[in-house]
Structure formats: structure tokens, C-alpha cells
Amino acid sequence: MPMTRATRFLTRSAILLSLVLVLQVFGSELSRGLGLSPWSVFVVGPAVAACLLVATAFAGPWAGIALALLAPLGAYATGSVTEPVFLLAVAVGNLILVLPFAVMDSSSEAHPPRVRLGSRALGILAGSVLSCAWLWGGVTLYVRWFAVEADVKAAMLYAYAWPQAVAAAAGGAVALLALLVLERRR
After folding, report:
1. Per-residue pLDDT tens for 159-169?
2. Measured between alpha carbons, how far is 17 from 29 in angstroms, rounded to an integer?
């Protein structure tokens, strides 16, 4: 008996959310263990971004939106996001990454594979830049308005600047490759 649309949505979303959480824990612990905590954004960030984008294309935009909103909780649980108030900004940043991709993906659904790949890449590029701008602006305001210790302030200003764009774009590249493989198997 074939899976219903709702069952497929829930199954794919749950698998990708589980993968996001596992990658956040594994990536954070690996970075800490190797003494590379400041660089964990380049390990965990692309993995999470890839999962968000694959969820959006493979399970539907609502799956991407759900993961975008839930992923910051995993980041908080692993200590990647240390300021609880900033969780909302991270969730919005994730949404900003997912939404342009979702629009470009759905608008190119009937087009040939190369056009669809290009549309998806443009959605990833737009989402990466806009998400980075949002997070950089948000963290800049946050550290001005709230009493944040100097070392935490420096770490936040670094982690939520250009590394976010690099991590999102790298995750987008991984997502595009994963989607090529997944869609060939359909």
C-alpha cells in the first residue's frame, strides 16, 4: 500500500529533524573535542542548512519551515546558541534561508532539470545572503541592547557574520547534491 501524502511528509520531516539534531550534537562535540569550537559554524552550519533545504524540497515547504523553527532548540541544547533570547533571531534566519529556496524550487518544478538546478541555486544564494544579513544585524543590535560579556560578545559578532553566509552556501551545495541523488532514485 503506498504511503499517503501526510505520512510521507511526517516521515521525511521526522527523519530530517532527527538528522539535524544528531548532526548538531556530533558536530558540536567533535569541534569541542578537537579544540575547534570557534570553527564549529563551518561544520554544523552547512549540515543543518543542507537538512533544512533538503526537507524543503523533498518533504515540502512546511517541512523546511518546521525544521527552520525547531533547529535553534538543538543549537541551544548543544550550547551553540548560548543566549536564549537570540533563539528567535536564529529561527527567523533559518526561515530566511528556506523561503527563497522554497519559492525558487516550486516555481521551477515544471522546468527541465538544469533550469531547476539553477533556480534552486539562486534561491540558496539569496537565502544565504539575506539570512547572513539578518543574523549579523540581529546580533549587532542584541549585543548593544543587552549586557553581554566581552568574550561572548566577540564570539557572537564573529559567528553571526560572514561565516553564516559561507555555512549556508556550503550547506546549499550539499543539499543540491543530495537532491540530485534523491530525485534520481524516485
Report:
1. 889 999 999 99
2. 18
**Assessment of whether the complete model's pTM goes beyond 0.85:** yes
d(CA 104, CA 117) in angstroms, rounded, equals 10
CATH architecture, range 5-184: Orthogonal Bundle (1.10)
Ordered by start, the domain boundaries in the chain are 5-184
75-127, pLDDT tens digit by residue?
888 887 777 878 899 999 999 999 999 999 998 888 888 888 999 999 999 99
Collect all residues with Cβ–Cβ distance below 8 Å to 163 and sequence separation of at least 6: 41, 42, 45
- Is the distance from CB of 167 to CB of 49 less than 8 angstroms? yes
Cα→Cα distances 165→30, 39, 46, 94, Å: 22, 14, 10, 12
Question: Would you list the DSSP string of 143-171?
Answer: HHHS---HHHHHHHHHHTSHHHHHHHHHH
**DSSP string of 1-30, one letter each residue:** -PPPHHHHHHHHHHHHHHHHHHHHHHHHHH
